[in-house]
Amino acid sequence: MEEALAADDPRLVSAMSSSSGVSRNRLGLGVALVIAGIATIFGGLIAQITAIGLGGFLIALTGSVLVYRAFTTPGALVPASAQGSEKASRARNPRKKLGDRLQDRWDQRNFE
Q1: Which of 12, 49, 98, 109 is the most exposed place for a label (fewest CB within 10 A)?
Q2: Helix, strand, or coil here: 45?
Q3: Higher model confidence: residue 67 or residue 8?
Q4: Does residue 78 have a pLDDT over 50?
Q5: What is the reported pLDDT for 75?
Q6: CA atoms of 47 and 68, how far apart (whole Å)
Q7: Distance between CA atoms of residues 24 and 33, nearest Å
Q8: Distance CA 84, CA 15 (A)
Q9: CA 27, 31, 34, 38: dihedral to nearest 10 degrees?
Q10: For the chain, how long is the longest CA-to-CA vector?
Q11: What value does the CA radius of gyration of the chain take, rounded to a whole number of Å?
Q12: What is the pLDDT of residues 40-69, one digit of tens each?
């Protein structure tokens, strides 16, 4: 059964088998933004222009939020299109059991 799943949906298998669950792209971008923000803050301090310092603070804040979300967002490695379709199907019929929803998704993926 695991081999069939790996053959049918390799992205799902890789997302489920990864132990960290950390979005590496989001983490790298966040760290780069924090470093760029700190450099911009120092640039504003040296130039004595408050607006540049505030811009650097906002850049660093955005980077720190991205780093935080890289570690805390569940399913960070699952594409956004897959997450949206799951929410839409759950919103249509919230009373369906989990097993029924999983079976419906399996049938849609393999037979449609």
Answers
A1: 98
A2: helix
A3: 67
A4: no
A5: 54
A6: 31
A7: 14
A8: 17
A9: 180
A10: 65
A11: 21
A12: 999 999 999 999 999 999 999 999 999 998
Distance between CA atoms of 56 and 59, rounded to whole angstroms? 5
Tokens 């979300």, residue? 69
pLDDT range class, residue 89, cuts 50, 70, 90: low
SS3 state of residue 94 = coil
Specify the 3-state DSSP secondary structure of 72: helix
What interhelical angle do 98-111 and 80-92 show, nearest 10?
A: 120
Closest to 75 (Cα-Cα) out of 14, 26, 17, 21: 21
Residues near 29 by Cβ (< 8 Å), separated by ≥ 6?
63, 66
Locus of tokens 């059964």: 1
